[in-house]
Each structure stands twice: as C-alpha cells, then as structure tokens.
C-alpha cells in the first residue's frame, strides 16, 4: 500500500485560481507548505548541531517533516539562513539541511549561487516522480520589480543536488518589446519567435504628455520596452497529476512603473530539463490588481456592519455598466484566531453615484481564503464578479459564486448550486483491473486501466490475482477543485474551465481528472467540452 499512497498524494487537485501565476489559475494542492507546529525545529529558532558546524550563526527560516531521501521514512527538512538581527527579513547563506529520519545523519546544500534574499520560503513536492519529495525554494530579491530567485533541489539517496540549475530555473523567457503606431506595443518571445501585440491606449494621455505619440496615435520617437524576471513561479498540478511550473513576468513600457503586460509561461520538468509548454503574452489585467483605494484585511465599518466584519478582498472595476469604475469589496465575519470566514457577501460602491449595493455570495457563504475575480462572462454592460472560497476539506474542493451588479441591481448570474454542480459520473471497478467511468448526462463511457496499482487492490480484497473483481467497488468524483476563467474561443467573453478529481477505492486513490469547459448563457451554464485525463500512476 505504501507505493500506492505515495503515488496518489501527488494527484490531489485544488483551486485557488487567484493565487497563482495565471491570475486565474490554480494553486499546487499537494504542496506541503510548512507548518511549524508539527515540526521538531520551529522557524525562528537558532540552529545548532555538532555533526554539522556552520561558520556563522544560523536561524531556522522554514521547516517541515517529509520523506526527501526516498527511503519511506519522514526526514527533518530545514531551511536555514544567517540573520544579522533576529527580526531581519533578509537572510544570507541560505541553505537546506536534511536530517535523515532513518540513518539520523545530516546532509546540507546551498540553495545556489544566489543564496541571499527576503523572507525565504520552501515547498516540498515530487517534481521528477522518483518517489522522494523535492524542495522548491523562493528568495524574494527586493526592489521595485517584485522579482524572486528560485531553487529546485533533491536529496534522493541522502545527497543534495540541484534538479535544475538555479540560474536556468529563475531566468524566464527573453522578450523584446517595441512601441508601434496606434498606441500599441509589439512583444516578441525570443525563445519561440512568436509576436503578440498589446494595446496601451488606456495610458495614452501619459504617452501624449511625454511626446511619445501624437493625438492620432502616430509614434513620434522610438521606444523600447523591457521586462522583469519572475514576479511569480508557482508549482502547478496538471490534470494528469504531474507538476509544472507556472511563471509570470511583468512587461513594462516607457518606464519601469509603466507596466503594460504580462508574460505567462508553463514549464515541465522532462529528463532533468525545463521544457516550455505554453507561453502567453497578455495586456495587464487592471481589473484584478489589488485595489489601490481600499485595503484588504481591514475592518469593514460601514453602517449596520456586524462585529468582526472584515474586508477580505477588494477590486476596482466597472461592474455596474455605466463606464465608471466601482469599488468591489468582498466582506465577511472573521474571528481573530480563525482563518474561517462566514457571512460572505459582495459590496459594490457605485463609482458615479456613490450608492451602495450588496448581496450574499449564496447559500454556501463561508470558507477559507475567499477571493474575487472580475471578468466579462456575459455580453452585457458591466463585468461580472466571480467569488472563490476553499471549503477546507481533504479533497481541495472550492465553492464558486457568479454575481452581476448591472445597473446597481445585485443578482446571481447562475445559481450557486448549478454553478458548482460540475460533471457527474458513475464510476465502477470492472474485471481485469479496469475502471469504467460513465457520464450520467450522456452515458458516454471511458475505461481506465489501473494495473499499476493491482497489488494494492489485491491486498484490499477488491481483485483476485487473475484480475477477476471479487467485490463490487464504486469510485467517486469531487466537486470543483478549480473553476478558472479562460477565453477559450478568444471572443473577449470568458468561459470557465473546471477540474474535478476522480477517486477509486478510497478518496486518496486518485484515478483521473475530469476537465470541462462551460459557457455562461444568460442564467444558464452550457457545457462546451469535457475530457477524462487519467493520472500518470
């Protein structure tokens, strides 16, 4: 059973579409971000081990317990660094130390040539699928660009080494940005040779004042833009259970503060090399930047607000449809000692009239890490408000709400229960280590081969050794681990791409991911495509 459990852990799916590189994507669900309470070594402690002397004092920056050596035993994994003062955010000589859970020996490895940065963080995931968790480390560089340096390390077999050279992992793609007539910038991906065009007319007044363009949009002086390194590089679970890295690079125009676009990339680790799988150049999504007018994580003190009501997210965009941007606030009740938020609702303050309208996110109005996304889901004036909330269960399921505030009249675009319904499948184990997945909507059936886990199923008494099914076994499908906005047909109106985890004999027995694309049609959700993607087992 041990082999099967290790495999299925890497297949857990979840959402978090606002927290990642795509702005509308997903967070790595099996990323075992460290929790100090569960560790032998707590962050903030001074590190000392006679078996492993350091030239200068070292502090535990992050810590977890997980098998990184690949021997089946959990190891103590520490991220260490030197701080001049205990409360410094900047650390130097950042190093990973592993205390082998079985051999009780130590191994250490610097994070790379760049070994200093702000607020170092460590995440553990099995990137190369060798059965041992690898370590992904982020060092914030500081400065106005908001970039970070990343390291990807392995301690399989008890010795530390880089899975990908730090410099290669952190460099991103090379771009060339050139201003052209019509208040546009032509951006070329030097790796692929593909060229995209970004409309910068939203900032034309500043370009006119600077003498870059005339009023007709003719370019008066040559201007080349530039780009930064990664502002984010995030592990991302793919539908087949493998792990990719989703990157974001800022593209800027006439000055560094003039952010005009985003380069979004997806990289896979294949045979020890990073392979570019996808690259998209897009304009800056100003509607989904953090609001500069309203600060999140502050008390909401409007009239009739309940005690402990907090602003948990805020955006600035036109959702009423009058052409003037509005303040969009996601508020809820939150106790100081709990991350759980209740009574979630969206409050919109009309940018033209100052009038306020608000509505609950729906019948399911509580959860963890609630977040807003503003987008055009219907061909109507004003944009819609998509709300995402983590349920907190082991399946990584999220609840979504899609709301309209057109003409200051709050309403559900699609009923919350319908929006979260997703695909439904009858999942039955069959002879010869097969699982049949039958869509309850159209009776379409797909069969998955599960021979890779046959020893575990035989041990559980589900199958005989000859592959005959001994005990009727039914699988299960979760709700959405992600329902992410995408423009699949590139018509300027967003669709929703859903991911649902399909499990077998028990919830941790991941079999596949159901991938679906839905179009909002008035108050209905219309299925556009569906696909079952088996997990690589």
Give a description of the structure.
This protein has 537 residues and is mainly beta. The protein has five helices and 32 strands. It has helices at 2-9, 166-171, 204-209, 416-419, 454-459, and strands at residues 46-47, 58-66, 75-82, 90-99, 106-110, 117-125, 134-140, 148-154, 161-164, 175-180, 184-189, 195-199, 226-237, 243-252, 259-270, 273-283, 298-299, 309-317, 326-334, 340-349, 356-360, 367-375, 384-390, 398-404, 411-414, 425-430, 434-439, 445-449, 476-486, 495-503, 510-521, 524-534. Strands 1, 2, 3, 4, 5, 6, 7, 8 and 9 form a nine-stranded antiparallel β-sheet that branches. The protein is globular and about 75 Å long. It starts with a helix and ends with a strand. Residues 1-39 have low confidence and may be disordered.
Describe the protein's topology.
Elements: H1 2-9, E1 46-47, E2 58-66, E3 75-82, E4 90-99, E5 106-110, E6 117-125, E7 134-140, E8 148-154, E9 161-164, H2 166-171, E10 175-180, E11 184-189, E12 195-199, H3 204-209, E13 226-237, E14 243-252, E15 259-270, E16 273-283, E17 298-299, E18 309-317, E19 326-334, E20 340-349, E21 356-360, E22 367-375, E23 384-390, E24 398-404, E25 411-414, H4 416-419, E26 425-430, E27 434-439, E28 445-449, H5 454-459, E29 476-486, E30 495-503, E31 510-521, E32 524-534
